[in-house]
Hints:
Layout (H helix, E strand, L loop, with lengths): L1 E4 L2 E5 L4 E3 L2 E5 L8 E2 L4 E4 L3 E10 L2 E9 L13 E4 L4 E2 L1
Antiparallel strand pairs: 1-2, 1-10, 3-4, 4-9, 5-7, 6-7, 7-8, 8-9
Amino acid sequence: MKATWNxxxxxxxxDTVVVEGNHYFPDASLKREYVTFSNHRSMCPWKGEAxxxxxxxxxxxxxxxxxxxxxxxxxxxxxxxRVAFWKGVxxx
Length: 92
């Protein structure tokens, strides 16, 4: 699987975990040169608190386009150490 946005490959891995239709990539596959800080948080009743990163590619910002669960609940333990994408990021 490969995650791309604005012409850049953000992550690529043969080891993704699919939860609710989203591919969670290993954190190590995320290309950090495209990642910027975000203080956004959200809550999922069964996965826990999601934290976010924003993306910056060629001067274009995609706020909160990457999410992860630093301490997922037991029901979602398989996504610990993984990141997922949305907001126009293509995963194929």
